[in-house]
Structures are given as structure tokens and as C-alpha cells.
From TrEMBL:
<dbReference type="InterPro" id="IPR023382">
    <property type="entry name" value="MnmA-like_central_sf"/>
</dbReference>
<dbReference type="GO" id="GO:0002143">
    <property type="term" value="P:tRNA wobble position uridine thiolation"/>
</dbReference>
<protein>
    <recommendedName>
        <fullName>tRNA-specific 2-thiouridylase MnmA</fullName>
        <ecNumber>2.8.1.13</ecNumber>
    </recommendedName>
</protein>
<dbReference type="Pfam" id="PF03054">
    <property type="entry name" value="tRNA_Me_trans"/>
</dbReference>
<keyword id="KW-0489">Methyltransferase</keyword>
<feature type="binding site">
    <location>
        <position position="32"/>
    </location>
    <ligand>
        <name>ATP</name>
    </ligand>
</feature>
<comment type="function">
    <text>Catalyzes the 2-thiolation of uridine at the wobble position (U34) of tRNA, leading to the formation of s(2)U34.</text>
</comment>
<dbReference type="InterPro" id="IPR046884">
    <property type="entry name" value="MnmA-like_central"/>
</dbReference>
<dbReference type="InterPro" id="IPR004506">
    <property type="entry name" value="MnmA-like"/>
</dbReference>
<feature type="site" description="Interaction with tRNA">
    <location>
        <position position="354"/>
    </location>
</feature>
<keyword id="KW-0963">Cytoplasm</keyword>
<keyword id="KW-0067">ATP-binding</keyword>
<keyword id="KW-0547">Nucleotide-binding</keyword>
<dbReference type="GO" id="GO:0032259">
    <property type="term" value="P:methylation"/>
</dbReference>
<feature type="region of interest" description="Interaction with tRNA">
    <location>
        <begin position="148"/>
        <end position="150"/>
    </location>
</feature>
<keyword id="KW-0808">Transferase</keyword>
<dbReference type="Pfam" id="PF20258">
    <property type="entry name" value="tRNA_Me_trans_C"/>
</dbReference>
């Protein structure tokens, strides 16, 4: 096959490209420039897509012996990922920019361009596994290394995209083995730290970055009965489940810590309360997709597992596709159906804007962006 290897400048993508060559494919390396003004250097594990990363990727491509190019996707990245991140926070939601980047950039814009140029597939260093079912349809499954599994962030991929993907690291038992292989191959990135945090906020100060983008506006912090407990400098700086940084000045009557329960951007207020108030009995979202073939009758309850963060444990649940209440105000225009998931045990710290990925066994079934939640307390009261 003719394969385009997406090379981030890290060890995983470099080894993935090398394995693709070793498997006999015709491979071309490409690094995505996602910022017009990237930092020239990384700080440990902070940041990615910097000039240093581009140079690391080029050195790896030279050692592997493949052509290498840099493609400027900065305009689309800003529109599809950065601007979306700002808009979601401004609307009181907690977005996952890595999901949007995979959906809109790495497996949409990049794949579309690769196909237009005659490539058969895009190769990345993600830890996930592709399986073909009896009918020849692609399925996305967890990697063999559970601790490194990245199938969650790939849950946005469609059947058409999966058919054009290549994940050479999916069966590798550990990241240590990948680093050891990189060292044997003479790749200088063998011991380069993994990237963490949001790539376009390399210093990790999300609150400060958002304040620069959308400004600060003083508002009230309320308890779950509506009493004013203090003030904040911008509701966009808070997310559901947050405990630190509330600066209330006085403890709760029972002395226990408070957590953010709700962010209300319209009134610029933040609601806080006890941890048990974070327990969620139902989640639902209208922006959803199948990762591969859809279920034959998704309107019927089916058993699955739901995962709401990249490194969270999956929770057994029941799910279905249902019609959206036309009076509901939380949905984006045009949405007519929603995924509704009821976990067997309450979820905690769930915020609108997060991505829920559904699994059946090791297979990724699909995903949706959480638009609304129902308290587990409310569900118990109705039972």
C-alpha cells in the first residue's frame, strides 16, 4: 500500500512509520504544522507541534529513509479546534480538543488530502487495533496494552475513515517496548517525553488563556439552593467536578469540600455543592457517530460500557437512540436524535461538552458529545 505516515515528532509515530516501511509499504512522512507561531522549544512534556517537534520528525524520517514534508493545517486547526474550544467553554461546556483534532484534522482534513494525492491509508502512532468482521467491515478495538490504550480518542472515526487507517502499534504490549525498538533503530526520539496538556496552551494555564481570549467578568458563586457564597472572575474558567480554585473563603457548614456542580454562562454564575451531588444517573447527547457499522436496532436498549474520559475506567451501562424533545434547549440546531446512556452505577464529575465513548467488549461502538445529564438522585427519586 501507499501510506502517508503522520509524524508528530514523538517516538510512537516514528516507530509506527518505521514498522510500515518494514511491512513493505511505500511510506511518505508528513508533519502537521498546526500553528503559525509555534514555540521553538518544548518544556519537558508540555506542548506539541513545535518547531523542535518538526525537526525531530524530519530526523526520524531521514533515519527511516522516507520522504518527509510539512503541511500547514494551521488555519483549519484554529477554526475547527481552537475556536471550537473557546466557543464551548463560553457556552458553559467542557470540550475535549484532542477528540476534535482527531475528528476534524488528523482523520478528516489529513485523510481527505492523502486520498486526493493517491495514498491508500494514513498511518499514526495511536495505540488501538483494527479488526475486520466477517462481512469485511472495519471495527475499532482497544489496544493490547490497556494502560496505553488510545481507542477512546479515536471513537470519533467513521467506518469510511477506519477503512483508511493503519495503526502498527496496536498489538504492542507496552510503551517501554516501543522506546526500546526506537533505540535499536537509532531514532533520537527514543526517550523523548510524551506530550501532555492541551497543545495550544503549552504552559497549562487554561484559565489564564481563556481569560485572554474571552475576557473576565465578575459573577456569583452559588450553593445548590441559590445562596451567594462568593464571586468569580469568569464562569468560563470553571468546569463541573472542579474542587480547587474556588476561593470561597469560608467552609461549608459540614466542613466538607465543595465541588462545581454547574456552570451557567447566560447568568455568569457557578453553582457548587457536595461531592455526592455530582453523581449522574443518565447522560445524553445529540452530536453522535458510529465507529464502524451501526447496530441494527439502536432504538432498543442494548448493553455496553461507557467511558467519559481518556483514562477513566469503563462503566457497564444500557444505551439507546431516542428522539430529542423539541422543547429541549441544550441541543445544537438540527439535532433530532440523541444517544441516551444509563450507567449501572453513577458517574461523577460529568460535564456537558465531554465525549462519551461506548464499547461492547473491546470494540468501540460509537461516541457522542454530552449535552445533558440527569442527577442520580433524581433518577432514584423517580424509581
Amino acid at each position: 500500500m501507499k501510506i502517508l505516515a503522520a509524524m508528530s515528532g514523538g517516538v510512537d509515530s516514528a516507530v509506527a512509520a518505521a514498522r510500515a516501511v518494514e511491512a513493505g509499504h511505500e511510506v511518505v512522512g508528513v508533519h502537521l504544522a498546526l500553528s503559525r507561531m509555534p514555540g521553538t522549544l518544548r518544556t519537558g512534556s508540555r506542548g506539541c507541534c513545535t518547531i523542535e517537534d518538526s525537526m525531530d520528525a524530519q530526523r526520524a524520517a531521514n533515519i527511516i529513509g522516507i520522504p518527509y514534508y510539512v503541511w500547514d493545517f494551521s488555519d483549519r486547526f484554529r477554526a475547527e479546534v481552537v475556536d471550537d474550544f473557546i466557543a464551548e467553554y463560553s457556552a458553559g461546556r467542557t470540550p475535549n480538543p484532542c477528540m476534535r483534532c482527531n475528528e476534524k484534522i488528523k482523520f478528516a482534513a489529513l485523510l481527505d488530502k492523502a486520498i486526493a494525492l493517491g495514498f491508500d491509508a494514513v498511518c499514526t502512532g495511536h495505540y488501538a487495533t483494527l479488526v475486520t468482521d466477517e462481512a469485511g467491515h472495519p471495527e475499532l478495538h482497544r489496544a493490547s496494552a490497556w494502560a496505553k490504550d488510545q481507542s477512546y480518542v479515536l471513537g470519533v472515526l467513521t467506518a469510511e475513515q477506519l477503512a483508511r487507517c493503519y495503526f502498527p502499534l496496536g498489538e504492542t504490549p507496552s510503551k517501554g517496548l516501543v522506546r526500546a525498538e526506537a533505540e535499536r533503530r537509532g531514532l533520537g526520539v527514543a526517550h523523548k517525553p510524551d506530550s501532555h496538556d492541551i497543545c495550544f496552551i503549552p504552559d497549562g494555564d487554561t484559565r489564564g488563556w481563556l481569560a485572554e481570549k474571552v475576557g473576565e467578568k465578575v459573577g456569583n458563586i452559588l450553593d445548590n439552593e441559590g445562596a451567594v457564597l462568593g464571586q468569580h472572575r469568569g464562569a468560563h474558567s470553571y468546569t463541573v467536578g472542579q474542587r480547587k480554585g474556588l476561593s470561597l473563603g469560608r467552609p461549608a457548614p459540614d466542613g466538607r469540600p465543595r465541588f462545581v456542580l454547574e456552570v451557567r454562562p447566560t447568568s455568569n454564575t457557578v453553582v457548587v455543592g457536595p461531592r455526592e451531588a455530582l453523581a449522574i444517573g443518565t447522560i445524553a447527547g445529540g452530536r453522535w457517530s458510529w465507529a464502524g457499522q451501526p447496530l441494527a436496532h439502536p432504538e432498543r436498549d442494548f448493553e455496553c460500557e461507557v467511558q467519559i474520559r481518556a483514562h477513566a475506567d469503563p462503566v457497564p451501562a444500557r444505551a439507546r437512540i431516542a428522539r430529542i424533545d423539541p422543547e429541549a434547549e441544550v441541543y445544537r440546531e438540527g439535532a433530532t436524535e440523541e444517544f441516551v446512556v444509563e450507567p449501572d452505577e453513577p458517574l461523577h464529575g460529568v460535564a456537558p461538552g465531554q465525549t462519551a465513548v461506548l464499547y461492547v467488549g473491546t470494540r468501540v461502538l460509537g461516541q457522542f458529545t454530552i449535552d445533558r445529564t440527569v442527577s442520580a438522585v433524581s433518577v432514584e427519586a423517580q424509581a
